[in-house]
Write a structure and sequence with these properties.
The protein is of the alpha/beta class. 36% of the residues lie in helices and 16% in strands. It contains 11 helices and 15 strands. A 5-stranded mixed sheet has the order 4-10-9-8-7, sandwiched between helices. Strands 11-12-15-14 form a 4-stranded antiparallel sheet, with helices on one face. The radius of gyration is 20 Å and the shape is globular. The model has no long low-confidence stretch (mean pLDDT 95). Bound molecules: pyridoxal-5'-phosphate. Pyridoxal-5'-phosphate binds next to α3.
């Protein structure tokens, strides 16, 4: 216990109605189909709340697989066709570059209580205490927390000067000790993504008998998904979440996509810890969300549009900003302290994220909100 270092999430303050641009949540509401499904449950299926839910969330896994097959796993690039039904576009197609060359089946999906829980089970199932797990120095800060909890040694590989992953060093180190690799793509907090081809080359040279984990929490906003690579790599495990692109951080739904053998092992861990990780209401809400992919395509496109506008604004005002494929930007301005700027913006009623981590303490990570929220932020930043 004394050695645990719990994760510190972005603040969720109660004392004042801040504009929240600090936790990479989606500013848009869930689809109307989701709110309808939940209302219908309360009215007509209250008895279900008295009963245990499906432990394996099979209907939800089917809905997730169906959504991935339709969208290709990148909402911001998916195509919409047909008129609007229930306020949502009726048909969704993957763009040519995102088409998955096989059918994703429910047996390839593991569904869990937020991707943080999915990650926890992955760390437990697949990483060894005595084999250094290879990860970038700056990436999702929950990975080191789990490594500490499960007593897994880490090899944190520094990013290159341009903030990209040092792929060569990561592969070299993984082969030295026959270790697993984990990173987010696009990465956080840098917002930079790698192409599927680049990751394919990495997996090809990484240890074949170790699980290779790619966390695609942000890929729907314009990155490239690695799902098509599952045809070639039995050791690839992809983690995804409903929290960012599916406007559902409060619902706690995450999932993994991999070949069935890895999914079965994750299920064994789940059934040894918490047989029922996803409650009945979240399962039904999740199914409704997957059935309205068209709605979320429009949300992802709006976020991507506002992001590109905001990046232009920042660059025109002397900020350094990395090219973002996510729903946030990572930026700094020479001569400005990250912490001071964070505080000044907070005084104006807007929360952004600042990390006290050495190497990135001058940077701010700013979540993309609605146009109204971004206009307010631009005004505040202009007047700093
Ligand atoms: C937000 C985030 C998660 C956690 O998502 P939940 O499904 O809400 O637990 C996981 N990985 C990365 C990289 C994230 O940014």
């Amino acid at each position: 216990m004394k050695n645990l270092h719990p994760y510190v999430p972005g603040e969720q303050p109660k004392e004042r109605p801040y504009i929240k641009l600090n936790a990479n949540e989606n500013p848009y509401l869930p689809s109307p189909l989701v709110t309808k499904a939940v209302a219908r449950l309360a009215k007509k299926q209250a008895q279900k709340m008295a009963l245990y839910p499906d432990p394996d969330s099979l209907e939800l896994k089917k809905a997730i697989a169906d959504m991935l097959n339709k969208t290709g796993g990148v909402l911001a690039r998916a195509n919409l066709k047909g008129g609007k039904k229930n306020g949502s576009a009726s048909k969704v197609f993957a763009s040519d570059s995102d088409k998955i060359p096989f059918i994703v089946t429910p047996q390839m999906i593991y569904a869990g209580n937020g991707s943080d829980e999915v990650l926890s089970f992955i760390f437990y199932a697949f990483f060894d205490g005595d084999r250094e797990l290879v990860l970038p120095e700056h990436t999702y800060s929950f990975y080191p927390v789990y490594a500490g909890f499960y007593e897994i040694a880490m090899d944190k590989v520094p990013l290159k000067d341009d903030w990209t992953l040092d792929k060569e060093k990561m592969i070299l180190d993984a082969n030295k000790r026959n270790s697993s690799i984990i990173f987010a793509n696009p990465n956080a907090p840098t917002s930079l993504g790698m192409t599927r081809e680049e990751i394919k080359e990495m997996i090809k040279s990484a240890p074949k008998n170790r699980v290779f984990v790619v966390d695609e929490a942000y890929v729907d906003f314009g990155g490239e998904s690695c799902i098509p690579l599952l045809a070639d790599f039995k050791n690839l495990l992809i983690v995804r979440t409903f929290s960012k692109s599916l406007c559902a951080a409060g619902m706690r739904l995450g999932y993994a996509v991999a070949n069935p053998a890895l999914i079965e092992q994750l299920t064994t861990v789940k059934n040894s810890v918490n047989h029922f990780p996803i409650d009945f209401i979240a399962q039904q809400a999740g199914i409704a969300a997957c059935n309205d992919a068209g709605y979320y395509v429009e949300c992802a496109r709006s976020v991507a549009f506002e992001r590109d506008e905001f990046i232009d604004f920042l660059r025109n005002n002397g900020w350094q900003v990395l090219d973002s494929q996510t729903n946030f930007v990572f930026c700094k301005k020479d001569g400005r302290s990250g912490e001071e700027t964070y505080k000044k913006i907070k005084d104006e009623g807007i929360l952004v994220r600042h990390f006290n981590t050495p190497g990135i303490e001058d940077y701010l990570r700013i979540t993309i909100g609605t146009k109204v929220q971004m206009d307010k932020l631009k005004t505040v930043m202009k007047n700093l």
